[in-house]
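As a warm-up, study this chain.
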Amino acid sequence: MSKQPQKDRALATLLSSVLADDNGSITPPIVQSSLFAFQDYQAFEDRMAGRSDQPIYTRVQNPTVAAFETIMASAENGAAAIGFASGIAAISSTLLAFLQPGDRVACVEHVYPDTYRFMERMLRPFGVQVSYHSVSQFETDPELLCDVKVAYLESPNSVMFQPMNLMQVSEHARKHGVVTMIDNSWASPVFQTPIDLGIDIVLHSASKYISGHSDTVAGVVISSQDHISRIRDLTLPLLGAKLAPFEAFLLTRGLRTLSARMKQHQATANLFVDRLASLPEVRKINSPGANDVPGLRGRAGLMSLEFDDSVDIPKFSDALQHFRLGVSWGGFESLILPARVGLAQAGEKNSMQHFGVPPNLVRLNLGLEDAEDLWADFTNALRTSVA
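Now compare it with the structure written out below.
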């Protein structure tokens, strides 16, 4: 159904690769079937005995999903990939495939909120030890990962967007035999390929930049064949968080424009970073760019700002015309998420509360609207909100 992408192609060319069937379709057909039949007894037995890889049941294997997985594996320079029904399904299924009671996870601070919730509400009660560490601790302390089973990373991390020297951290991990996992949703394979920097397993909330259209919830994991086989044989079939064929079709569509979209996100982010530096109301800009750490090739459109006390953040938020109030990011639309909303969340302590996010912080997702229109909207709202 699909041709194996060539690793020597430029990424933009690889991502736009034609995935054709025998009828000449230039988009991967949606194979909307729950099961697959066999021509004869021997073919059925060969599949059950592991002598063939013919699809058998969509919960674990589907041609449309496989087409998406093939491109993602090549894009991240991994050997294989697995698609999941959501980003947190990819994260939880991967962690559970490598952890047992008594194991220890070392996690970066300011981790994605639902990853934090999973570690606190699921891993700890099942006897897994979890510790949180700053980016600088991971980079500078070679003994931090002693007696650790899994190092869970984000670069940059969520909300504060602190980048990490992944080459340095992977060296520390290899010294202690630690499995390294990273959420690469922010950078995408356009701006960072962690496997090339020594990281073992790469994860994405594919709902974000991979999809790019705010119409898909999905996740994907990329790694070596051995690591992917472990997940595919254990947590994928037994937890059942499979990626559906239609979502895989939408993700493949999104991948074809990923490089172009990331360049536009970067251009708008660069414009904002350059101009924000001159605004007295902005105390700090959290937006790493190309070469801030080894292996980081660009600046994504997701950043955060810390305002001074003169800015009325609710008033600023309500005055915006082109930025919508909402969670998630990575689509064509621009979004704003004030930290005060997260800090006010009811229930058990969340990651913003745990790690101490400044209340005057605002996260911006810069979408694909005209950059000058976005800047005019931002500055107009800021003027109306300053006391």
